[in-house]
Amino acid sequence: MKFKNIKIKQGQKVIINEYSGTIPTTGIISVVGPNGIGKTTLLKALAGLIPYEGVILDQATLTYLPQKNRFYDAIKVDEFLGLVPTNHPQAGWRKQVFKQLDIADLQGKNVNTLSGGQQQRVWLAFSLIQSKSILMLDEPLTYLDLKYQQRFLSLISTASQFCTIIQIVHDLNIANQYSDIVWLLTVKTLLAGTPTQVLTATNLNIVFATTVKIHRTSAGQRWFSV
Questions:
Q1: Where is the ABC transporter domain (predicted)?
Q2: Cα separations (Å) of 114 from 64, 145, 179, 200?
């Protein structure tokens, strides 16, 4: 899937200014940038949810999970997840997702009675078990405690072998460690490349208007602080 010269306005204000890029058939893309730069807006445009100028080529099947989700009707966890067909091409994937996110502990419960973190696990499971080429996840780590953050990141690492994950994240260390490609959004352009290519001190200091420090462990792995 490719997009070219994507431009989005809210009234007279330009939110996205002629971004272009390519989405590979597999891998993890992490979208980073300051608040209000247009990360969510870009994903919504690529998912066909809002109007835009420009061209999207080779449109793929996709799922988009917003940052904030609500259940408006009383529905049990197993009923909700049962809405997704069980014919995923990866044998055992549905079972693996449910196990890692401890969905069995939530079965039979009304989703509206669950905590924010529990509801997020249900929404992530709902998205991950769908048989789509691209999964767009807007801040998927929201509400998750450390254990489920790690389990989710392990799941998308596996999923990225048979589909493309596009996730919006704020933690540069997660973007650095769990991405094949990083999209760094600026006021004027979309910078795309490997984490090493994009997440440089120069780029980050300019985009976030603050000093971002890059460190290295004894093994040579990069980590970030402010």
A1: 1-211
A2: 22, 15, 30, 40
